[in-house]
Design goal:
two-stranded antiparallel sheet, 23 helices, 4 strands
Length: about 575
C-alpha cells in the first residue's frame, strides 16, 4: 500500500479541472495557447541570434523603437539563467543541509561565490565561452547567461538551506514513520516547506539579474569590447553618453517588463505557495487572476492527467517500493566501489584546486609590497562601507518587510513596487544621484555608499516579507487572545518567526554589498572615470586595464574576509536559527 503524504506537494497543474462554464474554459485555453506561442517564438528568435556568426561589437541603437526587441532578448537571458540558478540552488542547498561535514565547506564557499563581484568572474567566463564557440554568437550569449547566473543563484541556495534546517522535528519523524523515500521526502515535505522562501528569493534573484544586466551585456576586457543587444547594453550606452532621455526610456521599458512579470508569474506563484504555510488554522490567502485562469484551462488539465500525473505516480511508487524492499541497504561491493570512486573524485578535485591555487599565488607574487599595502587599505574601506550599508538597510527593511508581509492589502499594493525598485539598475540612476550628491557637497564617497545601500537593502526586505508571510495564523490569533502589547508581539512572535529568514537576508545582503562595490566605487560618466578608494574600485580598475595580478589579489583578499565573517558570525546565526527559532512543538 502506498504511504500517504503528510505534506502534499501538489503540482501547479493539479486541481485545475474545476470549471465555471464554457466561456471561462475557452478564455483560459486561449490564453494558455497564446502564452505558449509567445514563449516558443521568443526562444526561436533568440536561437537565431545565438547561433549567428560571432560579432563582438554589436551596434546598440538608442532609439526607443528598439526597446521591445531588446527587452525580449534580456528577458530570455534572465529566464535561462534563473532556471539554471534554481536547479543549482536546490542541489547545493540540499547537499549542505544533509551533511554537517559538507556544510562546513559548502557554506563558506557559497558565501565567497556570492560576494565576489561579477567582474571577477567576467574575464575567465567570457574568454572561456568565446574560445569554446569561436565562430558563433553562442559563446558570448552563454557567457552573459552565466554571469547573470552568478547574480541569481546564491540567495536561493541560502534560502533553501535555511528552510531545510528549519523543518520541524515532528514532520521529519512522520516522514520516517511513513517510510518515505528520499524523493518523496524532497517533493512531499522539503520543497513544500521551502516554497514561500523560494518564491520570494526567486523574485529577488530575478531582480538581481536586472540589476547586473548592464555589466553582463556590455563589458570591456582590455582592448576587447563585447556587446550584446539588450536592455542592459541600451542603458549602459545611454548612461555613458549622459543621454537622460534614453535612460528614462530604458527604465520605462524595464518597469513595464517587471510589472508584466509580477502579474503573470510572481503573483500567481505567491498565491500558489500560500497553501504550503505551516499552520493549523486557515487564514486569508492571496488571490491571483492568472492562477485561477490556469486552473480552469482544459489544455493544462489534459496535459497533467495524461502525462505529468502518471509519470509522477510511477516514479513515487517505484522509489517507495524500492525503499521498502532494500531498506536503504546496498551490497558491500557497491559500497566499496562507491567509496573508492568518491575518494578518487575528491583527490582529483583537490589536485585541480591545488594547481589553480599555485598558479594564482604565482601570479599574485608579481605584485610588490606597496601594491599589497594599498589593497589591504582598500579592503578595510570597502569592509566599513559594506557593514554600514548592511546596518542602514536592516534599520528600515525589517519593519517595512513585517508590515508588508502581515498586511495582505499592503502586500498586494507594495509587491510590484518593491520589485520595480529592486530591479531598476542603480547604475542607470547613478548619474542623477551623483550629480545631486555632488551639488549637495557629499562627493563620490557618499554616492558610493548610497549605491551600495541600493544593492543591499532589497535582500533583507524580500526575506523579511517571506518570513512575515510564513507566520502561522494560529500564532497570530494566540498573540491577540493573550493581548500582547506591540513590543511583546515583536519580541515573542515576529522576531523569533522571521529570524531564520532575516539571517538569510543579511548573508545575501552582505554579498550584494560586496558585489555592488564594483560599480559604486568606480564609475564611467560622460567620458570620465569617477572613483573612490576601495576593493571594488581596485577590481574594476584592474579589469579595465587587464591587470590580472591585481584582480586575483583583490579577489583573494575579499575571499579571506568573507570566509572569516562566515566562520565567526553567519554559521553561528544559522545554528541558532535551526535550534532555538524553529517552528515545532
Amino acid at each position: 500500500m502506498k504511504p500517504q503524504p503528510i505534506l502534499h506537494y501538489p503540482s501547479i497543474l493539479r486541481g485545475i479541472s474545476e470549471r465555471t462554464g464554457w466561456k471561462s474554459s475557452f478564455a483560459a485555453d486561449a490564453s494558455v495557447f497564446a502564452g505558449l506561442l509567445a514563449i516558443l517564438y521568443a526562444l526561436f528568435a533568440s536561437g537565431q541570434i545565438w547561433f549567428a556568426p560571432f560579432t563582438p561589437v554589436a551596434n546598440i541603437s538608442s532609439s526607443p523603437r528598439a526597446l521591445p526587441l531588446y527587452a525580449a532578448y534580456s528577458l530570455v537571458r534572465i529566464a535561462i539563467a534563473y532556471i539554471l540558478a534554481l536547479l543549482f540552488a536546490l542541489g547545493y542547498g540540499f547537499a549542505a543541509a544533509k551533511s554537517e561535514r559538507a556544510a562546513k565547506i559548502l557554506l563558506p564557499l557559497l558565501d565567497i561565490l556570492q560576494s565576489i563581484p561579477v567582474l571577477s568572474f567576467l574575464p575567465g567566463v567570457m574568454l572561456a565561452m568565446v574560445a569554446l564557440f569561436p565562430g558563433r554568437q553562442l559563446g558570448l550569449e552563454l557567457g552573459s547567461v552565466l554571469l547573470i547566473f552568478t547574480g541569481q543563484a546564491w540567495n536561493i541556495a541560502f534560502s533553501f538551506y535555511a528552510s531545510l534546517k528549519g523543518i520541524p522535528r515532528e514532520l521529519r519523524e512522520a516522514a520516517r514513520l511513513y517510510r518515505f523515500s528520499a524523493w518523496q521526502q524532497f517533493t512531499e515535505l522539503e520543497l513544500p516547506f521551502a516554497a514561500i522562501g523560494l518564491v520570494w528569493n526567486s523574485m529577488m534573484s530575478v531582480a538581481g539579474g536586472w540589476f547586473f544586466l548592464m555589466a553582463c551585456e556590455m563589458f570591456v576586457l582590455g582592448a576587447r569590447d563585447f556587446r550584446l543587444p539588450g536592455l542592459g547594453s541600451y542603458l549602459q550606452v545611454a548612461a555613458g553618453a549622459g543621454d537622460t532621455r534614453a535612460i528614462l526610456w530604458g527604465i520605462a521599458a524595464m518597469i513595464a517588463v517587471i510589472v508584466l512579470l509580477d502579474q503573470l508569474v510572481w503573483r500567481p506563484a505567491i498565491a500558489w505557495s500560500d497553501k504550503f504555510k505551516f499552520e493549523t488554522v486557515e487564514g486569508t490567502a492571496p488571490h491571483s487572476f492568472v492562477l485561477t485562469l490556469l486552473r480552469r484551462s482544459g489544455i493544462l488539465a489534459a496535459f497533467y492527467r495524461g502525462a505529468i500525473y502518471p509519470l509522477e505516480e510511477r516514479v513515487s511508487r517505484a522509489l517507495a517500493l524500492k525503499k521498502l524492499d532494500e531498506r536503504g541497504q546496498k551490497p558491500p561491493s557497491q559500497n566499496t566501489v562507491t567509496r573508492w570512486l568518491a575518494r578518487a573524485f575528491v583527490a582529483a578535485a583537490l589536485a585541480a584546486m591545488g594547481w589553480l591555487a599555485f598558479r594564482a599565488l604565482a601570479t599574485v607574487a608579481q605584485l610588490g609590497g606597496r601594491e599589497l599595502t594599498f589593497l589591504a587599505r582598500d579592503a578595510a574601506l570597502t569592509f566599513l562601507r559594506v557593514n554600514a550599508a548592511l546596518l542602514l538597510g536592516a534599520l528600515w527593511a525589517v519593519p517595512a518587510g513585517v508590515w508588508i508581509g502581515t498586511t495582505p492589502l499592503v502586500a498586494k499594493l507594495a509587491q510590484p513596487l518593491v520589485q520595480i525598485a529592486a530591479s531598476v539598475p542603480a547604475t542607470a540612476l547613478f548619474p542623477v544621484l551623483l550629480l545631486l550628491l555632488i551639488h549637495a557637497g557629499g562627493g563620490m564617497g557618499l554616492a558610493a555608499m548610497a549605491l551600495m545601500l541600493l544593492g543591499t537593502q532589497w535582500y533583507i526586505l524580500f526575506n523579511v516579507i517571506a518570513g512575515a508571510m510564513a507566520i502561522p495564523t494560529d500564532l497570530k490569533e494566540a498573540s491577540g487572545i493573550f493581548r500582547f502589547t506591540r513590543w511583546e508581539r515583536w519580541r515573542r512572535l515576529i522576531l523569533p518567526a522571521i529570524f531564520p529568514y532575516l539571517v538569510t537576508g543579511l548573508v545575501t545582503a552582505s554579498g550584494g554589498a560586496w558585489n555592488a562595490s564594483i560599480v559604486a566605487e568606480y564609475f564611467h560618466f560622460q567620458g570620465k572615470t569617477l572613483s573612490v578608494r576601495g576593493l571594488g574600485a581596485a577590481i574594476s580598475s584592474a579589469t579595465d586595464s587587464g591587470n590580472l595580478p591585481v584582480l586575483l589579489a583583490a579577489t583573494m583578499v575579499m575571499s579571506v574576509i568573507v570566509v572569516t565573517m562566515n566562520r565567526t558570525l553567519w554559521q553561528r546565526l544559522y545554528r541558532l536559527a535551526a535550534t532555538r527559532f524553529k517552528l515545532e512543538t
